[in-house]
Specification:
Elements: H1 3-6, H2 35-60, H3 76-84, H4 87-118, H5 124-134, H6 143-152, H7 159-183, H8 187-195, H9 200-208, H10 213-229, H11 232-237, H12 246-252, H13 261-293
Helix pairs in contact: 2-13, 3-13, 4-7, 4-10, 5-7, 7-10, 7-13, 8-9, 10-13, 12-13
């Protein structure tokens, strides 16, 4: 008998399938019915848009009308607030205050944030703690000391007083955000620029500054929107009507006896449009800037 004939036949081992993962009671995201997603979102969107529609309704329908549809539409309320109520002047003053606050806050916060991110000094932690604690101080508590300071400097009834107050109010949070954002930029990039012969300022301008665009946009937009909407500083430091800003102008449309709802709604739309347009263009960089600035502390 040959060896081949004497060798017993061994059946091939069957491959057992790997054990399947235990089934849980949770359904996959793709299996969730779409109505369970869109229904809450639709309700929230409806709840958010109704006030905006109500403002548009009062601003576009004729005075005395009770229709729930702004038809026929009229622009009389916008013409009234822009010309008769001096909203054109208020708008120019608000733009000047907002842009100046944006520039000053960004420049000073950039310098302070770089110092906190790249240098070590003895009172660094105490300084950071002071910046954080300053955020708990209400702006109303600063009115009296700021008024006394500006009165001594003869800056009352000047847009410069509002710009300076808004800048000081915005600096702590702006410095913290930009400091955390600069920490995310590798220090080796600046060192490589130094090796190539650049000074500290040149290396920062060429290498680091272009990488800070989202953070700068976030800080600048936040400063602009806050100064655009802020009411107290303009009300306290500006006495002349020609120097007032839009929030104070909106307050003049309301009196103890009556309120012109059409003019008030038109003024509210004029005040809201610039902010909406700005956020529509910078929302991508704004979200990136705030998220990146909150990574490190």
């Amino acid at each position: 008998m040959s060896i081949k004939e004497a060798t017993p036949l061994v059946p091939a081992a069957r491959k057992t399938p790997p054990p399947s993962a235990p089934k849980t009671g949770h359904r996959a995201w793709d299996e969730v019915p779409r109505w369970q997603i869109y229904l809450p979102l639709g309700i929230y969107l409806l709840f958010t848009l109704i006030p905006f529609y109500w403002i548009l309704l009062f601003a576009l329908r004729p005075a005395g009308s009770t229709s729930l549809v702004p038809w026929p539409m009229t622009g009389d309320h916008f013409e009234k607030v822009w010309n008769e109520r001096s909203f054109g002047t208020y708008f120019q003053n608000s733009v000047l205050v907002g842009v100046a606050t944006l520039v000053m806050t960004t420049v000073v916060a950039l310098a302070g944030g770089y110092a906190l991110a790249r240098f070590d000094f003895r009172i660094k932690k105490a300084f950071m703690l002071g910046l954080l604690c300053s955020q708990f101080v209400p702006g109303a508590l600063l009115l009296v000391p700021l008024f006394e300071i500006f009165a001594e400097l003869r800056m009352i009834n000047s847009l410069g007083s509002v710009i300076l107050a808004e800048t000081v109010f915005q600096l702590p949070l702006s410095i913290i955000l930009l400091s955390n954002f600069i920490k995310n930029v590798p220090y080796s990039l600046e060192e490589a620029a130094w090796v190539d012969g650049c000074g500290r300022f040149t290396a920062f301008r060429i290498v680091v500054l272009p990488l800070l665009r989202p953070g700068l946009i976030a800080v600048g937009s936040f400063a602009f929107v806050h100064s655009w909407n802020h009411f107290l500083f303009a009300l306290m430091f500006l006495n002349n009507q020609e120097k007032q800003t839009i929030p104070v102008g909106l307050n003049t449309l309301m009196s103890a006896d009556s309120v012109d709802l059409g003019a008030l709604a038109a003024g509210g739309i004029i005040a809201a449009v610039p902010v909406v347009v700005v956020f529509a263009f910078i929302q991508k960089w704004l979200i990136t800037g705030f998220s990146a600035g909150a990574v490190k502390g």
